[in-house]
Amino acid sequence: MKIAGITSLEDLPRICPLLSRYGNPQYGEDETRVVEVGSVRFGGDRPVVIAGPCAVESQEQTLRIAQEVKAAGADLLRGGAYKPRTSPHDFQGMGKEGLEILSRAREATGLPIVTEVMDTRRVEEVAEYADMLQVGSRNMQNYALLKEVGRAGKPVLLKRGMAASLCEWLGAAEYIAEEGNYDVVLCERGIKAYPSGEYSRYVLDLNVIPAVKLHTFLPVIVDPSHATGVAMMVEPASRAALEFGSHGLIIEVTARRGLPKPQCDAAQAIDTETLRRIVDFIHAREQIFAEREAV
Ligand code: PEP
Ligand code: MN
Fold it and tell me: What is the pTM of this model?
């Protein structure tokens, strides 16, 4: 039922004519628009894995983790140089120095970089270093930032606001597309819902993945790290996300040995051995699909 004044999925053709399936029959009922970041293809033949630290904390830490995630089979490197923190007294990220460290990690490993931009005044600077710009959950409805990011000429990873409806999330993506940039990958990262905070950080809304695919042709990935906030839940959440049709994962990782405890989101960081098992799971699934096709 449509209630006057209340936005519902029926409004999607009006809210996002550029990105919804309704105005774009060329994508049919289930085709995905592939978003390319270097040679990596979101929405392509196989799920993409982004992995790395929550925050860039030092060159040694970032290079070590970058090398380990590369060896484990990750496709892109994540890491925040500008961090959205609950308290202004918490570590805020290394800023430009962090971006420089990320570009050295890219040089060393060949992995493209995904990093967050939080401020319209920093979009140009972050876009100089990043291969993909991340808009975080807290900024999903920062429309000035979305427009600026839409003009930056780089693919965008748009996280879902932690209390955002599907309409609001797709509406936010539309702001980026409206600036001429259709290279948007959506990312479900957990929502505030009962019982978030009791035994996990947020509630991972897996149901939204098929719903996203029903309404838009953009690729959608899952962040099991922020969604759960608990390292031991990251692997099962990753598997479940793939079963729900996720086009990829973004995962926070720490090195197996020898690095200090992360300053940011330590409880949800998995080690690279666990990451390797998740990548192996993806390969095993692909193998099964290929064998089924062959029959
Ligand atoms: C992050 O990925 O570094 C992050 C802060 O995530 P979110 O915006 O989903 O909280
Ligand atoms: Mn984090």
Answer: 0.97
Give the pLDDT confidence of 178-205 residue by residue, as tens digits.
999 999 999 999 999 999 999 999 999 9
How many angstroms does the Cα of residue 137 sit away from the middle of ligand 1? 6
114-127 pLDDT, tens digit each: 999 999 999 999 99
248-254 and 270-271: which strand pairing?
Answer: parallel
| Ligand 1 near 201 CB (within 6 A) | no
Ligand nearest to the backbone CA of 54:
2
Name 43's Cβ contacts closer than 8 Å, sequence gap at least 6: 32, 33, 34, 35, 185, 218, 219, 247
Please work out whether the CB of residue 136 comes within 6 Å of at least one atom of ligand 1.
yes
Q: Which atom of ligand 1 is nearest to the CA of 137?
A: 8
Are 142 and 161 in contact by the 8 Å Cβ rule? The answer is no
Phi first, then psi: give them for residue 147, nearest 5 degrees.
Answer: -65, -45
Cβ–Cβ < 8 Å for 132, 100: no
Within the chain, which residues score under 50 in pLDDT?
A: none
C-alpha 283/C-alpha 129 separation (Å) is 30
